[in-house]
């Protein structure tokens, strides 16, 4: 069986042009009837690794998945792509179940989803049944659940050990998104897949950017953050049920569409809230960690942690729920060492000192991540034993410059306070003491000390930053334990004596725009068209009662709104459009796109849809060169006769960027304004500029003129008016 056929199925059934990560290898292995274990991050595309073989093999593929709540959506999504699939679980009526059995008997099904419990049925009844059925493949989803070393052990998974013995000739593919080396080994052992191939993909989630903010006035910060993301879906994690309820209510009072989710709510309430979130009918879910396992919503744009998670594994998994569709997404953590201290009691494992100390170590690593000054992505990947470059370009640290100043005197005040307090107090008390707090908590004898109040000119927040900075530079240290005390170090004496200067961080300056690898891979799209298309999708999803992403993913809609396909053939070239979806949904979307294009005098931009070749390496080259280099490169191509769209395609940049590059050369006369802007547009742009007196800024002019005019065109005219 050939991989050519597999590629055809990929294109025609699922609408994708090429395989991702290890999909190719995994499919090939399965088709050769070899067992394999596939490790891919969330959103990597594990499902296709068994769905495509399922369509190529003669018999039935049985998928074992613990996530009963997901099965229906998964099956609906498959059916929508023209794949005959069904599920069996306890939520179904007897009639529904017998319909499924009938379909199996009539060889109508390619995929059957079952929960592991099903295999436990009395006396191997189900296994015996399967033996009489023509089973071609077993796929075990969330395979880490079989390992007691993992963080999500499920005893019923141990039953799967039987599979190999009962079905020695049927290949098994085990899939998971989280498994360290120990767990990988355990999966292979427990499933008795002795000669299994192991396919491990990178755990990097390039489309997620990581940011950590100090946890101070986090609610205010959150409101700002959400205010800028009103149209996006997101998950906000809190530690306790009480804070989930309160935050969800507060957010609703502020006008956000947010609902709570935690284990203390009634089952129906939880299900309803989850459902509303999945179907895009509410934007925000505020939740404890009870929420998430089994959330297959692909367009989660942000995940916020109001409190620190207990370990990096949890943080990675929870933030990993963002951006499964591959579009740019964000992870935001509000961090304080206080949280880490609070969690220390939560991670105790009763009566198991060894396990407790592993958990405490993991917790401290979480703290280290929160306090990190270097690339956060690198830290995460190294944590999962993966090497990567030092700077990712899309985390807060890679995008932040630290300005330092001579903070010797501040440092001396802090260190002498710690000394005067005999190294017996924590940061909070020390800061109150430095600021001369009148609070009763400050002991009377401390109020007599010379250092009391010497730091009253500095705010509490700033003191926290300075103390943290002093700790990270090794001038102070903190004891372990729930109430860490500040202590001097061997480096402190020189500062106190005045023989060593200390530089402190002044302000965090966020670099203007993240030079992320990923935002470039997102085409520039017309956001109002995208909004219209989402409405079309919502209507269809509601009618068919499936989540919107089952119709088309956000990523697919973004491509519609970027490349403006005008006909069925063009639609098929968009990622995520297969034959059946074209037939089922093509018309209403085409109609909407055409309507928009007519209204705005736009045409298809399918010619801009570059093959996604070597985007990454090209971007890297771009990041290295200076602004002028990149503009010069565009100019050189322009002069040698390439059109703007050809340059954009060749360089993997947007046309807007190329136009902006070229506009720079108008002043020197190397490029003429007429080469960049259609003749009839020049006058209206000039008029708008003069009317708005925007002082050289393109933004207000663009806003005024609307979508018929690009930034590039406006900049070109602005430049031409300069000379
Ligand atoms: P996982 O189970 O690994 O979390 P999924 O199988 O749900 O990931 O896939 C995530 C998303 O990526 C889905 O929308 C899927 O259709 C899409 N996808 C999978 N493989 C490809 C591919 N080769 N090209 C483009 N998109 C893909
Ligand atoms: Zn980084």
Explain what the structure shows:
The chain is α/β, with parallel strands linked by helices. It folds into 5 domains: 3-200, P-loop containing nucleotide triphosphate hydrolases (Rossmann fold); 208-353 and 363-390, P-loop containing nucleotide triphosphate hydrolases (Rossmann fold, 3-Layer(aba) Sandwich); 402-509, Arc Repressor Mutant, subunit A; 527-608, DNA polymerase, domain 1; 618-722. It contains 34 helices and 17 strands. The strands form 4 sheets. A 7-stranded parallel β-sheet has the order 3-4-2-5-6-1-7, sandwiched between helices. A 6-stranded parallel β-sheet has the order 8-13-12-9-11-10, with helices on both faces. A two-stranded antiparallel ribbon has the order 14-17. Helix 1 packs across helix 3 (47-56), helix 22 (527-544) crosses helix 24 and helix 22 (527-544) runs antiparallel to helix 26. The chain is globular and about 90 Å long. The termini are far apart. The model is unreliable at 510-520 and 612-626 (pLDDT under 50). The chain binds adenosine-5'-diphosphate and zinc ion. Adenosine-5'-diphosphate (ADP) binds at residues 16, 19-20, 23, 40, 42-48, 298, 324-325, 553, 575.
Uncertain regions spanning at least 5 consecutive residues: 510-520, 612-626
Q: What spatial order of strands do you see in the largest sheet? A: 3-4-2-5-6-1-7
CATH class call of the largest domain: Alpha Beta
How would you classify the helix and strand content by structural class?
A: alpha/beta
Give the helix level as a range of percent. Answer: 40-55%
Query: What separation lies between the terminal Cα atoms?
Result: 66 Å
Global geometry: globular
CATH superfamily of the largest domain: P-loop containing nucleotide triphosphate hydrolases
Radius of gyration of CA atoms, rounded to a whole number: 29 Å
The main β sheet shows up as: 7 strands, parallel
Total tally of structural domains = 5
Q: Per CATH, what is the topology of the largest domain?
A: Rossmann fold
Proportion in β-strands: 5-15%
Bound molecules: adenosine-5'-diphosphate, zinc ion
- Kindly report the average pLDDT value: 86
Number of helices: 34
CATH architecture of the largest domain: 3-Layer(aba) Sandwich
Question: How many E-type strands?
Answer: 17
């Amino acid at each position: 069986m050939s991989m050519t056929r597999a590629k055809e199925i990929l294109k025609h059934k699922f609408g994708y042009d090429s395989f991702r990560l290890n999909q190719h290898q995994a499919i090939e292995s399965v088709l050769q009837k070899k067992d394999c274990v596939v490790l891919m991050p969330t959103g990597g595309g594990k499902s296709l690794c068994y769905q495509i073989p399922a369509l190529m093999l003669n018999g039935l593929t049985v998928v074992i998945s613990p996530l009963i709540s997901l099965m229906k959506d998964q099956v609906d999504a498959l059916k929508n792509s023209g794949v005959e699939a069904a599920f069996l679980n306890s939520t179904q009526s007897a009639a529904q179940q017998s319909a499924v059995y009938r379909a199996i008997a009539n060889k109508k099904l390619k995929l059957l989803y079952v929960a592991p419990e099903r295999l436990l049925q009395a006396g191997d009844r189900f296994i015996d049944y399967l033996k009489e059925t023509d089973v071609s493949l077993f796929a075990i989803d969330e395979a880490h659940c079989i390992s007691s070393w993992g963080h999500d052990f499920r005893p019923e998974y141990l039953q799967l050990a039987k599979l190999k013995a009962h079905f020695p000739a049927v290949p098994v593919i085990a899939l998971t998104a989280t498994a360290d080396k120990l767990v990988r080994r355990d999966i292979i052992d427990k499933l008795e897949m002795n000669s299994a191939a192991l396919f491990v993909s990178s755990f990097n989630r390039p489309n997620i950017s990581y940011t950590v903010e100090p946890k101070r006035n986090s609610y205010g910060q959150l409101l700002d953050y959400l205010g800028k993301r009103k149209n996006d879906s997101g998950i906000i994690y809190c530690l306790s049920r009480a804070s989930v309820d309160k935050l969800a209510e507060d957010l609703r009072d502020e006008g956000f569409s947010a609902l709570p989710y935690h284990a203390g709510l009634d089952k129906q309430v939880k299900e309803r809230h989850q459902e509303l979130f999945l179907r895009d009918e509410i934007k925000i879910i505020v939740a404890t960690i009870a929420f998430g396992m089994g959330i297959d919503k692909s367009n989660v744009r942000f995940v916020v942690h109001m409190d620190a998670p207990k370990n990096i594994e949890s943080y990675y998994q929870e933030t990993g729920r963002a951006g499964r569709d591959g579009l740019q997404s964000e992870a935001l953590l509000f961090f304080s060492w206080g949280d880490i201290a609070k969690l220390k009691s939560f991670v105790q494992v009763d009566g198991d000192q060894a396990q407790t100390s592993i958990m405490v170590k993991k917790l401290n690593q979480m703290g280290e991540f929160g306090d990190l000054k270097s690339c956060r992505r690198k830290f995460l990947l190294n944590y999962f034993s993966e090497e990567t470059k030092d700077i990712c370009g899309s985390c807060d640290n890679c995008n932040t410059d630290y300005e330092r100043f001579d903070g010797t005197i501040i440092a001396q005040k802090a260190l002498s306070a710690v000394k005067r307090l005999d190294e017996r107090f924590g940061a909070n008390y020390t800061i109150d003491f430095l600021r001369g707090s009148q609070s009763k908590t400050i002991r009377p004898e401390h109020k007599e000390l010379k250092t009391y109040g010497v730091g009253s000119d500095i705010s509490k927040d700033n003191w926290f930053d300075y103390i943290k900075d002093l700790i990270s530079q090794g001038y102070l240290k903190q004891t372990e334990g729930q109430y860490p005390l500040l202590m001097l170090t061997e480096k402190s004496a020189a500062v106190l004596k005045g023989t060593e200067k200390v530089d402190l961080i002044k302000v965090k300056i966020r670099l203007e725009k993240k030079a992320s690898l990923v935002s470039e891979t997102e085409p520039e799209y017309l956001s109002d068209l995208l909004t219209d298309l989402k409405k079309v999708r919502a209507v269809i999803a509601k009618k068919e009662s499936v989540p919107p992403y089952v119709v088309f993913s956000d990523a697919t809609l973004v491509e519609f709104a970027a490349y403006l396909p005008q006909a069925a053939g063009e639609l098929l070239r968009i990622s995520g459009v297969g034959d059946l979806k074209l037939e089922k949904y093509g018309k209403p979307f085409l109609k909407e796109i055409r309507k928009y294009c007519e209204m705005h005098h736009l045409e298809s931009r399918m010619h801009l849809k570059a093959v996604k070749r070597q985007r990454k390496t090209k971007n890297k080259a771009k990041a290295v060169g200076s602004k002028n280099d990149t503009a010069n490169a565009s100019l050189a191509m322009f002069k040698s006769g390439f059109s703007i769209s050809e340059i954009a395609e060749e360089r993997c940049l947007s046309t807007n960027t190329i136009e902006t590059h070229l506009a720079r050369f108008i002043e020197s006369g190397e490029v003429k304004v007429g080469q960049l802007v259609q003749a009839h547009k020049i006058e209206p742009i000039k008029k708008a500029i003069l009317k708005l007196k925007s002082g050289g800024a393109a933004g207000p002019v663009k806003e005024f003129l609307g979508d018929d005019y690009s930034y590039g065109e406006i900049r070109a005219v602005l430049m031409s008016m300069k000379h």
